[in-house]
Write a structure and sequence with these properties.
Largest sheet: 5 strands, mixed
CATH class of the largest domain: Mainly Alpha
Oligomer: single chain
CATH architecture of the largest domain: Up-down Bundle
Low-confidence stretches: 485-495
Shape: rod-shaped
Radius of gyration: 56 Å
Helix content: 55-70%
Mean pLDDT: 79
Distance between the termini: 22 Å
Structural class: alpha+beta
Order of helices and strands: HHHHHHEHEEHEEHEE
Strand content: 5-15%
Number of domains: 3
Number of helices: 9
């Protein structure tokens, strides 16, 4: 699945999950609305109907009393209409699930309807005995029975209405709880999907970013954690990244090999030049005039500088191509320090710089290092320190023991290095802005070679500097270095 499809699917899923609680709430509201309409159309309407029926029975009672006293046709007609109205109302109870009550009330109304003409005729004939008997034994008991049934129906209806209201209240509470639970669950699921989407996108991006930083720092062997067989855009980027790192590694190796070959080939003509210069100095081709001797001296200095630069380039290319050789052997630390102190003490006196070598207690008497390479590193660092330290300054070489190794520090009170340039000082051909403070210019290869030699010994080298105050180079080396004939430089594997 492509990244775009994954994002679309994730967003659609989140939208569906968030819409589900809304759909549930809307359906629940519709159900509540239907229940409320049913409650209104049945229970509440039933209450109104029973109320009207009870009022109709009371009016019928009044109409019957009026008939007994007035004995006119208007009262008879009014009573007939009232009987018909009450009958119609009682029949309507069937629609409100009260068939039994409707039947009983209807029977009572029919008795009243049947007794009403006889009672009216007796009243017109002034036969009070018959009229009162019909009223007392038929009309009033039928009315009382109908009124009693209406009251029972009202009580039953109130109970049913109360139960319906309680049921609706419980259902509302359940719907509220269900809606909240559905929303919380939807938010949790949406959050999980969002986190999954974020991680599925963020992790490959972080990995790619780390890979690009590694490539920028020269680690061409960095392998992405993103599988190359992924079918999305990150898989394509991973494949492109591995192809790029492999090609860069091949180009870097070709570059190192080219520099190595070029440096090696340059050594022959340089050695020839230096050989002829030496023959001229020895007078093999005749004596030289003072002017020729001056030119000869200048050519000799430049030839030596060129030979040293070619040698440094050859060292750098060998280390980069994995061919830098180490020959570790047991050496005495005191012998190393004595040689360095003797070599630089004369330079310190000439330049009026205080030079001191400090040996802390606890140092091992013997270490296993490549003596020539370590002397090259320390000599380069001390030479730089003297080069950038003015008259009256100081240079110090100190050694102290650390866990399983030796910490060496070269400190000077020279010009210092700007903070923004410190990360680059170990790069090839890089020269800091403090070169104007140096007594002699360099090619920018010494620190690069020093770093490769230290790392080949399994150690680390770092630098701290404050402009105008001084610089300190720190070297951490293990006391015992495993014998190795060459230093292998990792290259990116083929895809």
């Amino acid at each position: 699945m492509t990244l775009r499809s994954r994002l679309a699917a994730g967003l659609v899923t989140i939208a569906v999950i968030l819409v589900c609680p809304l759909v549930f709430a809307i359906r629940s509201l519709h159900a509540l609305h239907d229940d409320a309409v049913g409650l209104r159309d049945r229970e509440f309407a039933g209450v109104l109907l029973l109320g009207r029926l009870r009022e109709g029975l009371n009016d019928l009672r009044h109409q019957e009393l009026g008939l007994l006293f007035t004995k006119d046709a208007a009262s008879r007609q009014a009573m007939g209409r009232q009987v018909e109205l009450v009958g119609t109302l009682s029949d309507s109870l069937i629609h409100f699930q009260f068939p039994d009550y409707a039947r009983d009330i209807g029977a009572s109304i029919r008795k009243i309807a049947q007794a009403a003409p006889a009672e009216y005729d007796a009243a017109l004939a002034s036969d009070t005995v018959v009229a009162d008997s019909l009223s007392f034994h038929v009309f009033v008991p039928a009315l009382n029975r109908a009124d009693s049934i209406v009251r029972v129906a009202e009580s039953k209806l109130r109970e049913r209405t109360f139960d319906r209201v309680q049921s609706q209240t419980t259902e509302i509470t359940a719907i509220e709880t269900g809606s909240i639970a559905a929303m919380v669950l939807a938010l949790i699921l949406a959050g999980i999907i969002a986190i999954w989407l974020t991680r599925s996108i963020n992790q490959p991006i972080v990995d790619l970013k780390s890979g690009m930083h590694a490539i920028a720092d020269g680690d061409l062997s960095y392998r992405l954690r993103i599988p190359s067989d992924r079918s999305d855009e990150f898989g394509e980027l991973a494949r492109s990244f591995h192809v790029m790192s492999r090609q860069l590694g091949e180009l870097d190796k070709l570059k190192a090999e080219f520099v190595s070959v070029a440096s090696h080939e340059l050594k022959t003509p340089i050695n020839v030049m230096m050989g002829y210069l030496q023959l001229l100095e020895e007078g093999v081709y005749g004596p030289l005039t003072p002017k020729q001797l001056e030119v000869h001296k200048t050519l000799g200095l430049q030839a030596n500088t060129l030979a040293r630069l070619v040698s440094q380039l050859l060292d750098v290319s060998r280390f980069e191509a994995g061919g830098g050789r180490l020959e570790p052997r047991p050496v005495q630390i005191d012998a190393i320090l004595a040689d360095l102190e003797n070599a630089f003490q004369v330079l310190a006196v000439q330049r009026q710089i205080q030079f001191r070598v400090e040996r802390h207690d606890g140092l091992p008497d013997q270490v296993v290092w490549d003596l020539d390479r370590i002397n090259e590193v320390l000599g380069n660092l001390l030479s730089n320190a003297f080069k950038f330290t003015p008259h009256g300054g100081s240079v110090e070489l100190s050694l102290e023991p650390v866990d399983g190794g030796v910490l060496m520090e070269v400190h000077d009170t020279g010009a210092g290095i700007p903070p923004e340039q410190l990360p680059h000082i170990f790069e090839k051909f890089y020269q800091a802005d403090n070169q104007r403070s140096a007594r002699a210019s360099g090619a920018g290869l010494g620190l690069a070679i020093a770093k490769q030699i230290v790392e080949a010994h399994g150690g680390t080298i770092s630098c701290e500097s404050t402009p105008g105050v001084g610089t300190t180079f720190s070297i951490m080396l293990p006391a015992q270095v495993t014998r190795r004939t060459s230093i292998q430089r990792p290259l990116p594997a083929s895809i």
